UniProtKB/TrEMBL annotation:
Biased composition (Basic and acidic residues): 26-40
Annotated stretches, region: Disordered: 1-46
Gene3D superfamilies according to UniProt: NAD(P)-binding Rossmann-like Domain
Record family assignment: Belongs to the short-chain dehydrogenases/reductases (SDR) family.
Keywords annotated in UniProt: Oxidoreductase
Stated name of the protein: NAD(P)-dependent oxidoreductase
Length: 295
């Protein structure tokens, strides 16, 4: 038996930096030729008037559409983003054009200190927190499970589910009766995705987290729900979240025969964040182009 120390099978540190895969994700929406549709499609009706919301991954894609829709509905919105300063500033400008206020917070939410700092900034600025949207995520396609490194595995879980634990822990002292948490899971949790093994596993964890956290908080008057989008046209996929050769057919396998747009998903987050869904907790909505899934 060799006396050499074996290589560790897991990553022996609490925080893993971005993987070396290129291009780095989630990517800049400003650099996309075919830009996603983020604009709210109807006038606001004050459904979040006076509320304060955090939207993670709010600089682009579903997060961008949700943040701007929340602003149209009267919420002040804090945007958490990784490093895409141009996209984040664009969203802040749009929020202000809606007559509301924005706060930008740059950093990696897989680090618990980043989430704590975000919540502190929100409370210092606005004195309350009513809605937490956990939307930030990353994915790395791999045809073979043996190609998923320990670093990538931990990184994907760190970004997609650990960050939700960290943010809820930081936000919990400030969430009062009537507050709402909305998590972003995925159709991959229900249907599986053969090239997104680690990503799909995190989405299963998010759904279980949503249901369990709902049971934990419902008697406090805090509702917890989730949205499980299907294939949505956001920077995540063309910037490395899908193999390039698959992008020309992205979303065509849905019953509607096309990918969804972020502004077709944002209303689901709004519904779960406002009092329209006051009798719902522990549930999942499915804007997925017509695919029928259970749960």
């Amino acid at each position: 038996m060799s006396s050499q120390t074996a290589e560790p099978e897991t990553v022996d540190k609490a925080f893993v930096e971005e993987t070396g895969e290129q291009p780095r994700m989630p990517g800049h929406e400003s650099q996309m030729d075919d830009k996603p549709d983020w604009e709210p499609r109807y006038p606001g009706s004050g459904r979040l008037k006076g509320k304060v919301a955090i939207v993670t991954g709010g600089d682009s894609g579903i997060g961008r559409a949700t943040a701007i829709l929340f602003a149209r509905e009267g919420a002040k919105v804090a945007i958490a983003y990784l490093e895409e300063d141009d996209d984040a500033q664009f969203v802040a400008d749009q929020i202000e054009k809606e007559g509301s206020e924005a706060l930008l917070h740059r950093g990696d939410l897989g680090d618990p200190e980043v989430g704590k700092a975000l919540v502190r900034k929100v409370i210092d600025k606005w004195g309350r927190l009513d809605v937490l949207v956990n939307n930030a995520g990353e994915q790395h396609p791999d045809e073979d499970i043996r190609d998923i490194t320990a670093e990538q595995l931990q990184r994907t879980f760190q970004t997609n589910i650990f960050s939700m634990f960290y943010l809820v822990q930081a936000a919990r002292p400030h969430l009062k009766k009537g507050a709402a948490i909305v998590n972003c899971t995925s159709i991959t949790m229900y249907k599986g995705a053969p090239i997104l093994l680690d990503y799909s596993a995190t989405k299963g964890a998010i759904t279980a987290f949503t249901r369990s956290l709902s049971e934990n908080l419902v008697k406090e008057g805090i509702r917890v729900n989730a949205v499980a989008p299907g294939p949505i046209w956001t920077p995540l996929n063309p910037f490395g979240g899908q193999p390039p050769e698959k992008m020309k057919d992205f979303g065509k396998d849905t019953p509607m025969g096309r990918p969804g747009q972020p502004n077709e998903v944002a209303p689901a987050f709004l519904f779960l964040a406002c009092e329209d869904s006051s009798y719902m907790s522990g549930q999942v909505l499915h804007p997925n182009g017509g695919s029928v899934v259970n749960g």
